[in-house]
Amino acid sequence: KDPGKVGYKNAKEKDIALDIVLKVGKILEKEPNIKVVYTRKTDVFVDLWKRGKIANKANADLFVSVHCNSHTSQAYGAETWVLGTHANSRNFEVAKAENSVIELEDNYKVNYKGFDPKSPESIIGLTLMQEEYLDQSIQLASIIQDGFTYNLKRKNRGVKQAGFVVLHQTYMPSILIETGFLSNKTEGSYLNSEKGKQKFSESIAKGIKKYLNQLDLNTVTSQNSTKNKTTEIKTTQKVEATNSSVKFKVQIASGTRKLATKSYNFKGLKNIERVKVGNSYKYYLGNT
Prior knowledge:
three-stranded antiparallel beta sheet; 10 helices
């Protein structure tokens, strides 16, 4: 009941998006450290709120929603979205169009607690719970968008923010990808081709892996060794007794990216200190 956007030569978003996602999953499933969870693997309608629920139930680390665009003109190009509100009427219209699918669902007024896809006030309320994941969502969206622009040579329509219900429903970094315009003769034909779908899936999968690698670079594995802990305490006591100018801190991350020292970037930890060392940044907690 929801074909999505319908474009050149009757190409349907529901078919193309599903093909791309299955190809992305096939690539990622080859990675030993990645588990792929699908909202659908066949041609079925899945309520928006259920899509987020599937991701939340799986305790997923990322949510990636793949779409195709359409317009009355011959517009073309790829864009990637994160959840947010901007005083921008066009962004609101985009979100309204994507969110309108909830009206096809049974009991949508109950499931979405009075959310009105046509109301700016409803969309503003969406962003509050996703706010803590915004930095990571933008980081992933930027990597994906760069891949489309520089590797696939698609027209760069940028990383944007709008109030999408499907992103609001998730409690993790989340993005919505608009691969291109089915209504454009050239781009629609490319997206509907086996080559086009394969190229997009490879680019998306590569972007996700790059994002995960960047996260790994900024992650420090904790050590629970009692022996280490005892040694550290003895050393601390000796040094403090002889030199009160020495300060002890816990380095919790390092990397080339300059992160804001906000609690949402460090799993709720506050009073983080950022120090530049060469071309990198180190992040510390505590000062004893």
